[in-house]
Amino acid sequence: MKKIIYTITVIALYSCQEKATELTPILPDVITETTINDTDDPAIWINPKDASKSIIFGTDKETNGAIYAFDLDGKIIEDKTIRNIKRPNNVDLTYGFATSDSTKVDIIAFTEREKNQVRVFSVPDMRPLDNGGFKVFEDETNPEFKAPMGIAIYHSPINQKIYLIVGRKTGPKENYLYQYELVANTEGTNLKLVRKFGKFSGKKEIEAIAVDNEMGYVYYSDEQHGVKKYHAEPEKGNKEITVFGIGKFESDIEGIAIAKTTSKKGYIIVSDQQRGQFNIFDRETNEYLTALNLTTLETDGCDVVTTPLGSKFPKGIFVAMNDAKNFYVYDFEKIEAAIIAATTSK
């Protein structure tokens, strides 16, 4: 039986590669070391003291899961890796969270599905700020709708508040997402529920969530339907702004990365999982631009930074999960060059 399953898997992955072969393949500059179980979602922390020593965090989703830390050569940084996490799915980060003693720290936040909670740690010292975890969807009466999966952090440029936007493994057709403010006071750090929002087509699930802090938008992948867009500020309401990408994906719409080339311009990069490629949309208009073959297999999560990370990555990096228990890392300069070449040749 194992041999048959393995053969089917290999055929499926080969088929996925074949679908992207009409596009010029772009190879990764770095492939990380492998994890134990199953990689899912990355987040990139920029080291303010030395950008060449920045860290790629990546989830390894299983009961004995972990948040792996990799250097820019793809090597595991063991003392920055968080182990014994009960099925972590998605991870995100932000900078300058004011703790209860007014100290500002950078943080990562990730979902821990089997405990129905999210975790928050400071970076780079990897100190837990959550007293073991924050429970989410506590008012949900349907047990099937309580398990968290997707997460994104919105750091408001208006009031500097930090919010965790959390999605579920399965959920209702209304209010699939909960938005929590991360609050620090004399009693410690807590989550405060500020709103429920987000429509769901009911076709499969919602996992990938991404926030454009500067533009004030939150995007999420309604798998097998489209990419949905809402305001990230709770005060701006819960009305859906638009849905884009309909008809541009073979099946599952997965990871979302927002590449910011100026304050408003850039690209929204979204994994077209079964086709083995990434669809590129304009950051301002959400118009479809092109697709890229980055030679990954069955990509779930992805992330990007456009800040220089030393001489090796002068325009930042794009990181994508690869279905071989690792992550692919690309010099963003060549990703951007490929996008420009494809769009100017049309």
Automatic annotation (TrEMBL):
Superkingdom, taxonomy of origin: Bacteria
Coiled coil: none
InterPro entries reported for this sequence: 6-blade_b-propeller_TolB-like (IPR011042), B-propeller_Phytase (IPR003431)
BPP domain boundaries: 16-339
Gene3D superfamilies named in the record: TolB, C-terminal domain
Name of one Pfam family that matches: Phytase
SUPFAM superfamilies xref list: Thermostable phytase (3-phytase)
Name of this chain's protein: Phytase
Organism, as annotated: Flavobacterium jejuense
Lineage: Bacteria, Pseudomonadati, Bacteroidota, Flavobacteriia, Flavobacteriales
